[in-house]
């Protein structure tokens, strides 16, 4: 499972049986008629798909071009994460797993995992950095109400990276009855491929919706924020083979690329292994993972999915870095122009518009990966709204 030189499964010996078992089963299951039928009907009747492709007319006037918003914020639980967790819970059940573990940063993936575990009646344990537990408290409350056990990761920087490490440790300790429900296109093969395929529903819909609404074959740009890279992978997926569609990923520059407080793994990272995958990651001189920082927990990750490392290296996609401040301003602009409060993560994709040379008749699809409810405290603190 390689994307050029990136990807693979660089995992500890003890994890190989779990990964081999998953690799052997995943394609057979997700291509089976029963899975496709159940996946489609849950996406529709439980998650609320298809999500709208909304023409943001006031924002379009502001940017003097045509801005279309793919509304993953309108799915059940409020982000694209539900697309992935519905698919993986069906796979876990097919594999006879009873105990689900996951990692989360922004808490959206944790909530989406706890949600599908309640739906399937399976035990759910979510690992979350102590810092993230504090800054995403509303999502922690939702996970608990949904019946999940939230375990604080107290090692390292006590954020997503450490939650992922602790989830992997748990999986090694309980291999047979446990399914590790990963939250993004990261980790050892087959996870990046599995999650990209599950998220590809985003561009399966947007491609058709765009054609129906404009009569044009393709948009000029598709823009999405990149934490691990799953909403971007899903947004790009069905456009990858069409080079006339320019693909733009927006990552978190935090306080700035040279500030030392950033999560811009594409801009600042080098090739290395993180969570079992060969990809770009921010590392110190002796190869230790650099602590990332972003105002948004969902992008606060020192690595990136190997697909994006490859798209960056091959030039098929371009990655821009957006600071905390730019993201906050973009969130306010969307809210004031269109009455949509986006997640801070998604606001990074919106802010990327300011770094792009879009022409008056360009069509730009921007994925709004989540809604901003979870970020209201940050918005109140940072935007001194009177
Ligand atoms: C609303 C929203 N938008 C974008 C992201 C970035 O994740 P990707 O789409 O996988 O790059 C996230 C990531 N959230 C994860 C989480 O909730 O646990 C994240 O923190 C990690 C799984 C990477 C998100 O919540």
How would you describe this protein?
There is one protein chain. It contains 16 helices and 14 strands. It is an alpha/beta fold. Strands 3-4-14-9-10-13 form a 6-stranded mixed sheet, with helices on both faces. Helix 2 packs antiparallel against helix 4, helix 9 crosses helix 11 and helix 14 packs across helix 15. It is globular, with a radius of gyration of 19 Å. The N and C termini lie far apart (51 Å). The structure holds ligand FEJ. The ligand Cc1ncc(COP(=O)(O)O)c(/C=N/[C@H](C(=O)O)[C@@H](O)C(C)C)c1O binds next to helix 5, helix 11 and helix 15.
List keywords for this structure.
globular, alpha/beta, 386 residues, 18% strand
User: How would you spell out the order of helices and strands?
Assistant: EEHHEHEHEHEHHEHEHHEHEHEEHEHHEH
Strand residue percentage: 15-25%
* Number of E-state strands: 14
- Give the radius of gyration: 19 Å
Mean pLDDT level: 95
Total count of helical runs of at least 4 residues: 16
Give a list of the ligands: the ligand Cc1ncc(COP(=O)(O)O)c(/C=N/[C@H](C(=O)O)[C@@H](O)C(C)C)c1O
